[in-house]
Amino acid sequence: MTTPHAHAPLPRGIDADAAARLAAPFAVLADPSRLRIVYGLVEGGPMCVSDIAAVAGTGESATSHQLAKLRSAGVVRSERKGREIWYQVADAHIRLLLDVAAEHYLAAGHLADAARVSPGSTKPTSTKPSSTTHSEPPNP
Question: Quick one: 66 exposed, middle or buried, by C-beta within 10 A (0-12, 13-18, 19+)?
Answer without folding.
Answer: buried
